[in-house]
Fold this protein.
Amino acid sequence: MNIPQRECILVNLLNACHDLQGSPVFNRSLWVCSDGIVRNIVEEGARACAIAMSRLLIWFAPKQGRFVKTCHASVIGLERDFPDCAWERIELLEGEKPIPGDILVWAVWEGTEHIGIMYDESQAISTFPRCGLRLHTWNMRADERAIRKVVRVWRHPHLAEEGRELLRIAAQLRSL
């Protein structure tokens, strides 16, 4: 008997993020030419978060549709694509956490916002200078002190369905 299968896009996307931890794949360079001058705008990974997230979202886009229109070098540019690609900006209620697959935007620090993706019920994954993609607490807490506050959360209906499913499975496994 043939049972129809569907690709688990979120699982594949999150596994790729996990597998790429520590890889310099997004941290080495993105060269641009402006006014006849060629320069690397990634700055050894300090400015790689939007590039990493947009490339991953392009790679794992569903067969019908897309998560972003193109690769972006800035958080602002990446976020401009979201409404046209079915992402919805959501407000978290007090005590509510993002779900796997939600895109998180953290507050400005050292002149730039930061973007990543929710990985599980307590961790997100984003780029860090000189070490590439890395898992960390979603609210970037260290010693119970918020380092960077999440200022925006974006949710895609396709990824949200899978994200809720992953949380249900994780809860079932914990109860065994």
